[in-house]
Amino acid sequence: MDYNTSVEIRPTPPIVSAGMSPDELAQLAEVAELLRVSKRTALKYARLPSFPAPVETLKTGRIWSRSAVVTWGKANLKRQPDGKRTLPPGRPRKQP
Fold this sequence. Notes:
This protein has 96 residues and is of the alpha+beta class. It has helices at residues 28-35, 39-46, 66-76, and strands at 25-26, 56-58, 61-65, 78-79, 85-86.
């Protein structure tokens, strides 16, 4: 049997986050840890218009800057006595 062993190597586009170290980046699980919430809640926060935009979107998911997530959390989440953070009560306003 004769198998074709040639492999086509395609150039990959440059990654925007290439200048950042892995310690500066966070996927959803790390975002949840940083904000001290569940992954489900972190995903809800990530869908908010005020949440920082991801620095990169890979096949495995979105990647955010850790510092941007922490800054957003400090500005938008209220700290509970147990140390967890939550959004202020009330229904979010509809965007015009």
